[in-house]
Design goal:
By secondary structure, this protein is α/β, with parallel strands linked by helices. Helices cover 35% and strands 29% of the residues. The strands form 2 sheets. A 6-stranded mixed beta sheet has the order 6-7-8-3-9-10. The protein has a 4-stranded antiparallel beta sheet with strand order 2-1-4-5, with helices on one face. Helix 5 runs parallel beside helix 6 (174-191).
Length: 225
């Protein structure tokens, strides 16, 4: 599902160059749950952003669902990302003035779906993450764990084959964090979604099938269960 071939990412900072990724080659199979780990500055989030089309590699080939995402035009990347990739971030990114239902339905509405169709799909997704009864609540009326589950429901709006999660339990207590990790594993195992998660937590990483450790922009270790 994901293939990186000598992927490098270099950022220009004044007259200096900062190497975030120094030649990553890795394959992530369809329907697997891969975890990317490593110290701060190791390149974890950079790799995740490249896979998600939020940034482009400086060199090397990056194939996502058999598409060379780094060579696509901006509008093509935007459409590809919308339909093929779901994102779950540490800081939720919900709109505070919209209800849970409206937050989940929003991507569908922006895609041109009718309001009724969008809300029916959103309601089904909220039911999937156990929040159907909280659909009319604003984010400020929800707990951190509930907000993250709304964010996950929104990420699944288009039934994407790939779900990218960047420290999804970073702002949650252990109980809510465990619930989110179980949900990610369920999405991977029962629905065939390819999940790639960045985390600092060894405990969280235990929910994945595979741990890819980065250090200084390179793969230090790659361990499968």
């Amino acid at each position: 599902m994901i293939r990186c071939l000598d992927v490098r990412k270099i950022y220009q900072q004044g007259e200096s160059e900062i190497t975030a990724l120094a030649g990553i080659s890795v394959e992530i199979a369809k329907s697997s749950f891969a975890v990317i780990m490593g110290p701060s500055g190791s390149g974890k989030s950079t790799l995740l952003h490249l896979i998600g089309g939020l940034d482009r590699p400086s060199s090397g080939d990056l194939l996502v669902d058999n598409r060379l995402i780094g060579q696509m035009a901006d509008d093509q990347v935007t459409l590809f990302r919308r339909k093929k990739i779901g994102f779950v971030f540490q800081f939720f990114n919900l709109l505070p003035t919209l209800t849970a239902l409206e937050n989940v339905a929003l991507p569908l509405v922006l895609d041109g779906r009718g309001k009724t169709e969008a809300q029916e799909r959103a309601q089904a997704l909220l039911a999937k993450v156990g929040l159907e009864e909280r659909k009319k609540h604003l984010p400020e009326e929800l707990s951190g764990g509930e907000i993250q589950r709304v964010a996950m429901a929104r990420a699944l709006a288009f039934d994407p084959p790939i779900l990218l999660a960047d420290e999804p339990t970073g702002n949650l207590d252990s109980k809510n964090g465990t619930a989110i990790l179980c949900l990610l594993r369920q999405i991977s195992k029962e629905e065939g979604c390819t999940v790639v998660m960045v985390t600092h937590s060894e405990e969280a990483a235990g929910y994945g099938d595979r741990r890819i450790y980065l250090r200084d922009g390179q793969i230090e270790k790659d361990v499968s269960k």
